[in-house]
Amino acid sequence: MLTDTLAVIPYAGTLPAGFFEVALPAQAPRPDEQMLTTLFAEEAERYNIIFFTDFAQVRLVGQFPKEGGEARFGFWESSPDATANAQAFAALEAEARRRGCPALTGPLDFNTFQRYRLRVGAAPSWGRFDREPTNPTYYPPLLEELGFRAHLTFESRLIRPETVPAVYTDKQPLLDALAALPFEFLPLNADTWPQHEAELFELVQAVFGANPAYRPVSEAQFRGLYNRTYAAGLCPHTSVLLRDQNSGQLAALSLCQPNYAPLGQAATQPPDFQRDYPRLTAPTLLAKTVGVHPSFRNRGLMNALGAYGMVHFREWYQQVIFCLMRTDNFSLHFTDGLPTEIAHYALYRKEL
């Protein structure tokens, strides 16, 4: 259906031709059409999906839960054209109101395993790390002009080489206490990942299940993103699982990797630590996915994960970025009081 110059296309099992090439900024990752085809087919089971685009200036996807509740928008890419965005979002909002949705949240490509959030403000000194939200600086103002407000906020914090000695002085008690913890430390890499894959899926659901905006995904979707190929890019010296020695249950995880972005590799070439780390001239560690099972919280395990990463850090890295932490998350406290460079991000919401 066309409304003036805007196409409104309900999902009917196929992706609209050309939709994912519309208004694609230079820094946006190129879409993987096969991955998108599979993703939309799966998510269509729980969302009514509608595509909005003028095929020139703007595109976005409305996601309306079949069980009701707030709507989401995602796969948003745009030129700075405020009029084109106003038209597209007006159609999205009208559809959300028609369906009785109380609010709109985004950008969020169905779930937090996929792309979501915007980076707010100028690009930080590191440019971009793997899976970091990147967007033109005009994106947040466009949403704010349309009545959206930051709903959840996030930070990435860089600790530079000159600050590293102070970190070790500050955290030495945590390092000293590691050996006495009643947990087994299980290093993660491409060889060990398959041994824990099924348990990892369950652990991730438990650790992040209560987070705002989180929705569970199928094991197939999880393994499409987090698998042995992904594990080959992990840092084998700092990535770890914690297993409770009494119950045998996985209690926490920390997935870290070098920042491979300076290598300028094609998106179609997954990073591999053994191959790519030696090519880095000033290695930066990314502390990316870190969390503790609800049954084991308030036992100091977040600090233990940070301390574990410090054991071999100075041998392999010059600096570290603690990535994409929610601003109200306890994990932020690990770097409190230390000099950091901070990048900001937000997920936006509009009450209807």
TrEMBL record:
* Superkingdom as given in the UniProt entry: Bacteria
InterPro entries the UniProt entry points to:
Acyl_CoA_acyltransferase
This chain belongs to the protein called: GNAT family N-acetyltransferase
